[in-house]
Amino acid sequence: MIKFKDFVPKRIPGTTGGFFSSGEPERYETIQDALEAANNWIVDETIQIVNVETVVLPNIWAEHEEGSEDGSLYTGSTSSHWHQFIRCWYQD
């Protein structure tokens, strides 16, 4: 059976700041962090890798979206935020 597993860079919440500061914006781990997680998973699991790809999708962290496995992602009429992640296809 063919399956896939996504390795999405984790979201790092920002801070709201205070009276004299604007706080820190949210950030994300790097694609290199996601690749390292994928490599660690491949070493730890007894699976056969079929393909590894980089996927770019819009707005996967938006509150109305379901992340990297969402079948329909809304780009809206304003700007979108595009996110890159690693997808491993494998046989179990």
- Mean pLDDT across every amino acid position: 82
Largest sheet: 3 strands, antiparallel
Q: What fraction of residues sit in β-strands?
A: 25-35%
Radius of gyration: 16 Å
- 3D shape: elongated
Amino-to-carboxy terminus distance: 6 Å
Number of strands: 5
- Helical amount among residues, as a percent range? 10-25%
Structural class: alpha+beta
Instruction: Please give the domain count.
Output: 1
* Widest beta sheet: strand line-up: 1-5-4
| Discrete helix count | 1
Spans of at least 5 consecutive residues with low confidence: none
Task: Explain what you see.
- The protein is an alpha+beta fold and 92 residues long.
- The protein has one domain.
- The protein contains one helix and five strands, in the order βββαββ.
- Strands 1-5-4 form a three-stranded antiparallel beta sheet, covered by helices on one side.
- The longest helix has 14 residues.
- The mean pLDDT is 82.
